[in-house]
Design goal:
about 290 residues, MetI-like fold, about 80% helix, globular
Length: about 290
């Protein structure tokens, strides 16, 4: 018995020293592992019970590779010109830019009342719950909901995108405001500064980098959403041309060209966002 206790103490010391690591699973890890195993088993069961009659895997694979070759190795425009393609891309960019700007301007004001360190707790919690509900509904559903009143087109797309953009940015902006040093805010309040004075001269200047980062992130998201809305809500733009090329013309080469164009714009937006943030950080450090 004495030997067993000494061995146990020895093992505990080794574990405390870091030589032996014993990690027990908590409840969340068990649930995640169980969910993963269940989904894996269901996937395997689905493949085993799938009806493969009339399907030739070799022919299907060859046809898929041929389609991929046409799309990405032989891209070409067939039903409209390059100038028209650039114009449609500009329309999609316009939808994304307008929805982002409108959503960001409204979100800054709402986020000031959603931050727990700037607004009463009841008001903050009410706004957070409301925007969480809005975010839970996909953007395309909001667009279709507003399309009932405004009709299919760019108006419904912009309203739906702005609605979801506000819900996203309010949460992001509010969290940025809440990360401010509470001591600085208390010092300003003690000196007699008003709420708007604190917001204009302390809150916004201290969080502008974070606000810009979140805004550009949402702008990139809105661009991809605008592509989808061009087909789903009849908003026009390059998304509508992609829908026509794939669903009506069945022109895989044109689908490939449009896909490359969208990809290049997305990469360009990412590079632009990085450059602007870098320049702003350098100018802030210099000042």
């Amino acid at each position: 018995m004495t030997l067993a206790k000494s061995d146990l103490l020895f093992d505990l010391k080794r574990n405390h020293a870091g030589k032996i690591k014993i990690k027990a699973w908590n409840k969340s890890q068990v649930v995640m592992a169980g969910t993963f195993v269940m989904l894996l088993l269901l996937t395997v069961y689905g493949f085993l019970t799938f009806d493969y009659k009339g399907i030739s895997m070799i022919e299907a694979t060859a046809a898929t590779l041929h389609n991929v070759k046409l799309m990405f190795l032989q891209p070409v425009l067939s039903h409209f010109s390059l100038a028209e393609a650039m114009y449609q891309l500009s329309l999609t960019m316009g939808l994304a830019f307008l929805s982002t700007i409108l959503g960001a301007l409204l979100s800054v004001v709402i986020a000031l009342f959603a931050a727990k360190n700037l607004a009463p707790k009841a008001v903050s919690n009410a706004i957070i719950v409301m925007v969480a509900f809005i975010r839970a509904v996909p953007t395309v559903l909001w667009v279709l909901i507003f399309a009932i009143a405004a009709g299919l087109g760019s108006e419904a797309a912009i309203i739906g995108m702005v609605f979801h953009t506000i819900a996203f940015l309010v949460k992001a902006y509010a969290e940025s405001f809440e990360e401010l040093d509470e001591g600085n805010l208390e010092a300003l309040r003690a000196s007699g500064a008003s709420w708007w004075h604190i917001v204009i001269h302390a809150v916004l200047p201290s969080t502008v980098t974070s606000l810009l980062s979140w805004t550009f992130l949402r702008f990139e998201t809105n661009f991809t959403v605008a592509v989808a809305m061009g087909a789903a809500a009849g908003a026009g733009g390059i998304g509508f041309e992609l829908f026509m090329a794939s669903g009506f013309y069945f022109d895989l080469r044109e689908v490939g060209f449009i896909t490359y164009a969208i990809l290049l714009v997305a990469i360009g937006l990412e590079l632009l966002s990085t450059q602007l943030k870098t320049r702003y950080l350098k100018s802030s450090a210099a000042n």
